Amino acid sequence: MGDLTATVLAVEDVGETSNFLLPNGTFFVVLFIFLIVLGVIGKWVVPPISKVLAEREAMLAKTAADNKKAAEQMAAARADYDEAIAGARGEASAIRDEVRTEGRQLIDESRAGASGEVSEKLQSASNQLSQTAAATSNELQPSVDGLSTKLASRILGVDVSGADASGGSR
Questions:
Q1: What is the spatial distance between Cα 23 and Cα 14, in angstroms, rounded to a whole number?
Q2: How far apart are CA 9 and CA 12, in angstroms?
Q3: How far is CA 53 from CA 38, 44, 75, in A?
Q4: Over the stretch 149-161, which tens digit does the pLDDT of each residue have?
Q5: Which of 1, 28, 31, 60 has its Cα between 20 and 30 A from that of 77?
Q6: Mind listing the pLDDT tens digit for each residue in 24-50?
Q7: Separation between Cα atoms, residue 2 and residue 10, nearest integer Å
Q8: Which residues fall in a compositionally biased region of kind Polar residues (predicted)?
Q9: SS3 state of residue 23
Q10: Model pTM score
Q11: Distance between CA atoms of residues 81 and 109, nearest Å
Q12: Nearest-angstrom CA–CA distance, 123 and 121
């Protein structure tokens, strides 16, 4: 530390007075070196950085434009989808109504056919029962006549078979 003070004292001993407002040669050398470094940085460092920044800015602008275009396409696709869904729902409703109408017609036709069959079967059963009743009546009529005269004879205590025979010959 003592050497440094001696040097400073030595400079002061020289007695030269320098005006700090007037630049000396060191200032011009430092200024020249600064300008060279500034030129080198301006020529070889700044253009590539500017180019990368410009490319990045262009890419961001393109991305923003692509996002906007994609949003527009999404909105258009959504509108088409909604329109298609609405059309499909209407068509499905029309088909459902048509099928219900056809189903009702088939049910009505089946009921009419079944009613016809039932009425035919009832008529057939009624005819068959009538024929059976008539046949049974025809078969049982002679025995009923004999049984009724026998019953009347027992109740009255008189033989009514002769009276019936005379009543039947009149």
A1: 20
A2: 5
A3: 20, 15, 33
A4: 888 888 888 887 7
A5: 60
A6: 888 899 999 999 999 999 999 999 999
A7: 12
A8: 121-141
A9: coil
A10: 0.41
A11: 41
A12: 5
